[in-house]
Amino acid sequence: MTFLAKDERKTIGEVSIDATAIYNLLKELKHEEVITYATINDMLGRDVRKNISLLYTAIKMARSNDGMVFDCIRKVGYKRLNDTQIVEKTTTQPFLRIKSIVKRTSKDMNCVDTDNLSNTEVVKLNAARSLFQTVVAFSAPKAIAKVEGHSAIPLPFGKTLELFMKS
Q1: Where are the beta strands (DSSP E) in the chain?
Q2: Could you tell me if 83 and 68 are in contact, meaning their C-beta atoms sit under 8 angstroms apart?
Q3: Closest alpha carbon to 19 in 74, 79, 65, 75
Q4: How far apart are CA 149 and CA 144, in angstroms?
Q5: Domain residues of the chain, as ranges?
Q6: Does pLDDT of 5 surpass 70?
Q7: What is the pLDDT, as a whole number, of residue 4?
Q8: Which end of the chain has fewer CB atoms < 10 Å from its terminal CB, N or C?
Q9: DSSP class of 111
Q10: Do residues 25 and 39 touch, judged by C-beta distance below 8 A?
């Protein structure tokens, strides 16, 4: 077992030298510029993909400190997004992901033989199925368009639900 010397131990709140160095590279990027894995690897002297948490930490720092948002370009690196790209990413990707997760989970649920479950477990399963259907309905492009048509500002939860209750 290897132990770190007392001065090598970091608390959770401390950022490593490597993550800070990557963050400093990210801060220099203009909108739509790409930083490649090769560039980061050259700077670090090792493959960042084998220590991807360093890059994730740097990206989180850039978002928190500088309002910078990045998106992955597979096998290439990360691109800094402009405001239009941020809107496109944040208003489509999460909903596609939600729908995919719910569909996959629903397929698992369909494999359950309810004869083997207690009444409490059947109720829990059916409640989850009902909520999943609701989540998919609310994350559909038509649902997003419905809310877009009624809000120039984010609507409170109750007002958003009212839009769907009317139709």
Answers
A1: 34-36, 70-73, 77-80
A2: no
A3: 65
A4: 9
A5: 10-80, 92-166
A6: no
A7: 47
A8: N
A9: T
A10: yes
Q: Identify the pLDDT of residue 148.
A: 86
pTM: 0.73
Our measurement of the distance from residue 51's CA atom to the centroid of its chain's CA atoms, rounded to an integer in Å, reads 19
Task: Give every strand in the sheet of 34-36, ordered side by side.
Answer: 34-36, 77-80, 70-73
Residues in the chain: 167
Backbone angles phi, psi at 100, to 5 degrees: -65, -45
Residue 3 pLDDT > 50:
no
List of residues 6+ apart from 57 with CB closer than 8 A = 15, 16, 19, 22, 23
The residue written with tokens 């139709």 in the block is 167
> Scanning the structure block, which residue is given the tokens 């360093």?
54
Look up residue 92 and give its amino acid.
T
